[in-house]
Amino acid sequence: MKIFQTKVFLILGAFALLIISLIVLKTGIFNRPYHIKGIEEVGVSFDELKIPENTKVVGIGEATHGNAEFQEAKLDMLKKLVNNGTCHAIAFEMSPAEAALYNDAIRENESDLTELIAGTDYPLYDTAQIVELLEYMREYNLSHDESESLMIYGVDMQTGVRAAEYLYDFCSKNSASFSEEEINTLKTLAENSDSDYPGARDFFYDLSVKLGASDDIFFRDASVVSLSLVQLLDSPSYEDKPNDYSVHRDTCMAENLLSFYNIEKSRGYDQIIITAHNGHVMKYDPADELDVNMGMKIDELFEGSYYCVGTEFYNTCVNVHTAGTYDDEYKRANHDYCSGDLLAYQAKFFDDGVYCLDFASVDKKAAGKVYNIIHKQNFTGMAGEGYTTDWEVYKSYRAKMIAVDHYDAMIYYYETTPIDPIHY
């Protein structure tokens, strides 16, 4: 009997030890952060971060959509490349139609930019930080010739009604280039819901071809707006095939970016910025068919001339949409988290609690500890939109990955603060 009890206790003890080990491995609760000696010699300020020559696309990611610092980094990158590079355009994870409306607004004094973003399809862009970015672009455009103007583009194909409405308005204003039948068809489509669009797929495709054949950059911009409706209608069901939908969406975003890059090339600029969530901009191994995202497709389409800069936090208070709340029940709330990322912790020892790492410049001999961290699996902050209790239970606000497999550089923040949507 005693032998049996001993065996039972040993089995239970081993099982308990296994569970505890898995918890420790999953959460990293016993990993205490510390100051890495010499980190100040490896890390650089954002101003010191150098974008390699001949880079066609510069990605600037967001570890979350809901932190002010990550939105500020978009403007910082735009200023950096406008001043030091050949970039005059930034593309957002937003609908092409919405960005086209912003393009119109940043070319005139009369537009109220704060009110303009009140109608955004993306409440996470309804912030003072995005208004500041648009104001910078407008101030620049009003003091430069049209040929030197800054452009904003949207690459996401998820919004339908906004695109149909924009196309109707655009074609009406340029009625000499379109038939009465085309304009009337757009009017009908703009007044109806997405459910009526499937029969118009060929119409939107033909319109995109017609618009794209023009030498006018705004016609070519509208061509992508029309194509985004084709992409939406061609997309797999999100409910039935979520992974297929995700692959389709990210592939379309990369292809739309290429279309906008070609517009920029025709204007004399050979660089463009793409900004989106880290999960979209980061790179994946093209051999892994399960991990297809926008960053991987961009790297393929631009033949490796893609430089991806991620963002990362140690401590964050993030503002995020509460999953399942829509329309009149729409709700956002702030949540506090710690990524446990040792490299993000190092930002504590830099001015303003932020620094950058260019991974290619981290030498194994001179910075062995940092080199080992970025070449091994480590936790990073990675929170999307749609808060659920899974964030607490499974710590799904972070992911484990090898940094150099996905990014060329990283901006690390010790603490990040929540966005404060203006109209929500």
Q: What's the alpha carbon Rg, rounded to whole Å?
A: 24 Å
Mean pLDDT score: 92
Total domains: 2
Described by its quaternary structure, the protein is single chain
Main sheet summary: 8 strands, mixed
Structural class: alpha/beta
Overall helicity: 40-55%
Number of helices: 16
Number of strands: 10
- CATH architecture grouping of the largest domain: 3-Layer(aba) Sandwich
Shape: globular
Structure, described:
This protein has 424 residues and is an alpha/beta fold. The protein folds into 2 domains: 1-30; 40-157 and 267-424, EreA-like (biosynthetic domain) (EreA/ChaN-like  fold, 3-Layer(aba) Sandwich). The chain has 16 helices and 10 strands. The chain has helices at residues 2-27, 39-42, 68-84, 96-105, 113-116, 128-142, 161-173, 180-190, 201-212, 217-234, 242-267, 278-281, 294-301, 342-345, 368-374, 390-393; strands spanning 57-62, 87-92, 151-154, 271-277, 306-321, 332-338, 354-358, 377-381, 398-402, 409-416. Strands 1, 2, 3, 4, 5, 6, 7 and 10 form an 8-stranded mixed beta sheet that branches. A two-stranded antiparallel ribbon has the order 8-9. Helix 7 (161-173) runs antiparallel to helix 8, helix 7 packs antiparallel against helix 10 (217-234) and helix 9 (201-212) packs antiparallel against helix 10 (217-234). The protein is globular, with a radius of gyration of 24 Å. The termini are far apart. 41% of the residues are buried. The mean pLDDT is 92.
